[in-house]
Amino acid sequence: MGPAILITIGVLFLLQQSRGFYGFGRTWPVILLVIGAVKLAEALASDAGHGLPPGPPPGPGAGPQQGQGPQQPPPPLS
């Protein structure tokens, strides 16, 4: 949202400087239109693929499995 607003404000000021008759007071509704367009695009965007990637499968001793009690830690190495 932030970059879109900054670009819009920059373009509006550029138009004011280059053409002279587009004052910021007359073009500020464009900012509201850009905010609405960005919010609409965010609402319509798909969430597919935006989750965390699956982690590696648990290795041996990763935790108790169904039907088994708590596992004992391995003995210390000598």
Description:
49% of the residues lie in helices and 0% in strands. With 78 residues, it is mostly helical. The protein has a domain at 2-44. The termini are far apart. The model has no long low-confidence stretch (mean pLDDT 75).
Write the layout of secondary structure elements.
Blueprint: H1 2-19, H2 24-27, H3 29-44
Radius of gyration: 28 Å
Distance between the termini: 58 Å
Largest sheet: none
Q: Which sequence of SSEs, written as H and E, runs from N to C?
A: HHH
Strand content bin = under 5%
| Alpha plus pi helix count | 3
Helix fraction bin: 40-55%
Structural class: mainly alpha
- Model regions low in confidence, pLDDT < 50 over at least 5 residues: none
From the structure above, extract its key features.
mainly alpha, 3 helices
Short note summarizing the structure:
The protein is mainly alpha-helical and about 80 residues long. The protein contains three helices and no strands.
